[in-house]
Amino acid sequence: MSQNSVFDLRGVHHVALVCSDMARTVAFYRDLLGMPLTKTIDLPGGGQHFFFDIGNGDHLAFFWFPDAPAGVEGVTRAAALPGRGDIVTAHGSLNHLSFNVPLESFEAYRKKLKDLGVEVSPIMDHDDSPTTVAREFHPGVYVRSFYFRDPDGALLEFAAWTRVMGAADDVGVDPVDATGTKVPGVL
Question: Strand 97-100 and strand 155-161: pairing?
Answer without folding.
Answer: parallel
